[in-house]
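Recap from last week: sequence in, structure out.
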Amino acid sequence: MDFAVRLAGRAGQRSAQGFFSDDWDSRLKEDGTEATEIDVAVEELVRKEGSRRVPDDGIFGEEGGSTSGSSGR
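Predicted structure tokens:
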């Protein structure tokens, strides 16, 4: 649980740093919703750290889709 809390804090900091700056772009996804560079960067952080900590777990992300795992989680 500590890992998840620390990772959520890091993701929140990354998100805030990006959104409080004026230097970011966005794009429309296939479903018509918007994805910012910050959205993608935060998800990449969570995916990278999650994969490092629990490499056998699957990941379902809004920006990057699904990555299957072998743990059943």
